Fold each of these.
Amino acid sequence: MDSTNGSANNHSKTRLQRLRCSVQNYDWGRVGYESAVAKLFEKNSGLEEIEENKCYAELWMGTHASGPSFVVEEELLLGHDNQDASLKSWIEKNPGVLGDKVFDKWNTNLPFLFKVLSIAKALSIQAHPDKKLAEMLHKTQPNVYKDDNHKPEMVLAITDFEALCGFTEFEELQDILRDFPEISEVVGTACVDQVLNCSEKDGEGKKKALQALFTQLMSTTKEVISDILAKLINRLNLESEARELTSKEALSLRLEKQYPNDVGVIAALLFNYVKLKPGEALYLGANEPHAYIFGECIECMATSDNVVRAGLTPKKRDTEILCSMLTYKQGSPEILRGVNINPNTKRYTPPLDEFEVDHCVLEDEKSVVFPAIPGPSIFLVTAGNGTMKSEAEETVSEGDVVFAPADTCICVTAASELHLYRAGVNRRFFGLE
């Protein structure tokens, strides 16, 4: 794992490295300065200003080819946007920055991808494949599924945040089928009766009934969906004049305005509608359906961009794959609130090796130490300014992104109230839980 670079680079690979990161302008993103992603990207990239009429959806921090980060020090030597200055290339030249154990498992691949999302309208109903399915999809459709890796992920709310996540409890599902007769019009009474007549204790029967209903719904022609949705929206609009709509009824009206005639508007009724407060998080495992609806968040995941979609999207849909890959687990998702590791920092720990996330808030003139760990980290400053000190001291402020090599102890001091997030390899991977 020895680097072939000279002594100057051997020194640089032990220091903190500033990163210039990539932005994604998906059409569901918030526009211009309404977007936290835009404001962070503007400061991170050194742009004089962003485009005020453009959507800024995601800021990517990591080594994925679809949104690479660049080592600022290397860019000064090699040129702007030179792929040899990318974080991926720099790690390949300096693999020691990952630490021995990380290198032994993932080679020179940074195992996590760190993001900020600014969401104005709903993302697609989607799921991410497990490792085995990812390898198959990548092999058979490499132009669509560009990674052979799984993509479990965690979302941590910066603002109030709305999401659909997993299928509802079975009793709630039965209530939904009674309250929304339009679903029966789409899938047929036999399919609905199979769910309504299922015994609460028949776990396998409930799963099969749900899978049959969901598959039938998602496979229905657009013409039928369009007709039934028109009835649903008309009914809800009339009922809203006489009573306050439930949260899911109101959501149906919102989603239909964003995605007219889309089956996802009806499918959303079957999922848990989750509202997170700032500082709350959700973990989303492989093969679990979800859709982010609104808000801004930090997101971290295993390094992959594989997405299987089937609703609320103009993009390619793989309905058959999505319906066959889901676990069809039911029940409310666990909301993670983090664990205090010191008075300033909360840690969010998902049940996998690739990543964990820390959120740190420092008052003026306060300091906190991030002890050395045997793997790499990426730090993002979202507000305030201060310093980060390892071998040398770096001034940091809003929009700064810093790569910390393995075995680097870092002292952070706030000049004004400082908010930062750290993504790193999960401590359980090193036996440090």
Amino acid sequence: MDIISTSDHSSIVAINLFVALLCACIVIGHLLEENRWMNESITALIIGVGTGIVILLISGGKNSHLLVFSEDLFFIYLLPPIIFNAGFQVKKKQFFRNFMTITLFGVIGTLISFAIISFGAMNFFKKMNIGTLEIADYLGVVNDATSVVLFNAIQSFDISHINPSIFFQFIGSFLYLFFASTVLGVIAGLLSAYLIKKLYFGRHSTDREVAVMMLMAYLSYMLSELFYLSAILTVFFCGIVMSHYTWHNVTESSRITTKHAFATLSFGCEIFIFLYVGMDALDIEKWRFVSDSPGTSVRVSSILLGLIMVGRAAFVFPLSFISNLTRKSPYEKIGIKQQVTVWWAGLMRGAVSMALAYNQFTRAGHTQLRGNAFMITSTITVVLFSTVVFGLMTKPLIRLLLPSPKPLLSRSLSSEPSSPKSLTLPLLSNGNGSEVDLGNYNVPRPTSLRMLLATPTHNVHYYWRKFDDAFMRPVFGGRGFVPFVAGSPTEQSGHQLQ
């Protein structure tokens, strides 16, 4: 009998440990489901840190080498299902109705936050003894998910000597990456919708429909990586397009399967990432270079946290004010409580920040430079602190500022959706066109609902719907443009035999 090598045995031990911990995270998260403080992600992070401490104690304070943060594992395998499902489950009606505000926050807001964090770090860190850092290092610290485009643009330029020409080239590169990545995701989603609509895989097997949807989604991500674009943006918009067209072209059984399959993959990968980050944070080699200056390490982390909070506030509140100037109805304006919630909820930094920091400051997960070690350990501290502290306070803050509707109304909103996204308030009307009898529940609404329906607001969503119904859905399918099919003939015959 062959003897298992030491490396293979270590891998088996690591896999067993991770599977057991993932199960523990799901079970504990379920038990704490009604808790207003905890969720599965925070639970996984805390369990990961605790496991890392136990491993260090067992190994006598030495590095166990059980885990080394892998960018390929993160970007190629774990991140795509999470981002795709975010696009697949997005509430498209609200997304397009608020498209200009989302774009304003996502592009202009990210640039504002990027500038404050980067140049603030450059100003503070140069006065501290943390080692040598180049300009590109200051421009690459603590990026969030939407800043991956900026990160890629920075890496493609020699910015040791910044001048107006380099600046405008950088802005052009950022815009190119942003729009090219978006277009690629839209094309991939439309291609999957057209293929399934024309070839109609469901007449033979729904398994093929599900396989095509999954593979096309992953192909969009890898094509974006191949062309050096932002794969996150690509797969996100691919998810939006596939939920709008492709999902309605498949059989009912395929819809149910894909909806739960994508959600399950995203859920599992998210827990895995937070568990992974928590355990990796206790890798002793990362902290060895900064162990002689604990005060400096705390100051660097505190400065980064402060810059993140200031940078987000610098665009959330001013851009919300600008957005409100374009909204006529007071019910469409972003209130101050909503602005505070948007500001607070975006302060958390996660695995994307760690992955980008590792990309910039390490080689194969390790570093030998003091300045780089400070950036890695400070990023870990920011991620742990923001996820646990800010994350624990997010739910209570939302319940305080934005209390949930009354029980009767909430039940009417939580019925089983007929699409991947959740249903929202159906214009406060029932099937006969009359308003829902809400009794004494005080629900904000326009003074005349019929007037609102008769004169719809001419925003991005309004014009998009007209174009979509006239040109896009007849070609690519979608709700109301394809016949309803419960399942493939094989499945139908199987049900008949039963």
Amino acid sequence: MASDRFGRKKPFLVAIVIQVIMGISAAYIPDFWAFTFVRFLIGVSVGGTMVIGFVLVMEYVGIEYRDVVSALYQAPFNLGHMLLPVYGYFLRDFSDFQLGISIPTIVLLSFFILLPESPRWLIAVKETDRAIGILEKVAKVNKRSVDIRKEVATYQETSQKNQTRKGNILDLFRTPNLRKNILCMAFNWLSCSYCFYGVSQYVGQLSGNVFINVASSASVTLLGSLASIPLMRILGRKTIVILFNFICALCLIILCLVPEGISSVVFACIGVVSSFIVFVVVYLYCTELFPTVVRNAALGFSSMMARVGSMIAPFVIELRDVALWLPPFAFAVLPLLGALITFLLPETKGCELMTTIEEGEKFGKKVENTLKNTQNK
């Protein structure tokens, strides 16, 4: 929400500073509750860096490459997940482990020098000259001969019909269409996070080597990120979310029935990769579904709901003590509901990013009205 009001760059840099300082500090804190509080602050900061970073990238990328870049944005997350069992294997002490995973984040401090503000946000809040300056530098680096000032003026003329103002999270709930979209999207985020983190942890408790199990589930998520690129080129965002939510739910229901062993790890990994493909797509889907002035608020609210899902997940795993089939069954329920709820959302593939609240409220309604008029004729 801060990055919708104060720009993408400043809150992003604040989140980076918190992440670096708290990550390294956590390695030297001997008290459990103090350590837990510092880890909480790390979680807050990572929520900021991942969400704001994604929006910033998407606001620089055109329609043609948006699906590819959104999927590749997740690849470093997958590589980090794959490295966790490696760090865990060689750094058995929690202090060494925490320090080992925190030191690489120091490189993010270079963004103080390297990172520009989002021109799309600057235009949305009428800081046109700054936006033009940044876009002229981008055009020079990309060796593109474009009249930036003319292009920006044309873009502003098309969006001037609706008065642009700074938005906040309440704007997502004031009007019926935006309210429906944010509630459906937030539930999907909750569902895929609940499933992804829950089943990833569940895999570690299945029979076999814990390091190999976790590395296996992490590796397939990288394949999922790469597979989502052609999928997003061929299919719509809505179709992918529905399809892979159903696949995830099906694999988890099958997991209830098979005995623990290689087959259970295989079905769990398919469930993990299916939920991660949904994760990759809902990042992009949410970005395209909401206008610039509330885009970060929408992603932030959805991401917050995702963390609710990941907080619930460990307690679901504990249901193993009641019955072995209960955790996968409980994990299967939400993606199944998520698939059904997604039918209420409009498709966003090939659409320009919206700027104003008014555009966001109208989006999807035009398609519905056109279909109704066609049916009446």
Amino acid sequence: MSYCKQEGKDRIIFVTKEDHETPSNAELIADDPNDPYEEQGLILPNGDINWNCPCLGGMASGPCGSQFKDAFSCFHYSKEEVKGSECIDYFRNMQECMQKYPELYPQEEDKESSSQAESDPGSASVASTEGSALSPETDAAPSTSNLSSDSVSPTDSQAAS
């Protein structure tokens, strides 16, 4: 005999072998393509843009949502030979809006530089010395003050003697 057990928010159903032998009477309902809560993808069956698609990453909402929708709609419905070529002003408006909110819309180079700085904290000091001119002492001979005895090759020690 099967039975149920409640544990907090979970309901555990124990079934017997006999319960599994009888065919299921569950009815499957076909997906409704007009269901607004059903995940449709970026383009709806009627050709419209699904602004609720998770693939847009929330770009259709937020402070620059209307500019994004204008630019994306223009591109999507473009009939020009070079698709979207008439949409440059819309994309420029969107970009200008996004530049007002760098914390919400970081630039690609901002992402790369922040991820490099996080992964290599010494990179900032290396970058600051790369463009500097070397002093005459460092041009003439490499400094050995930072070298350990095991990092010196036999030819280095022969040349020093």
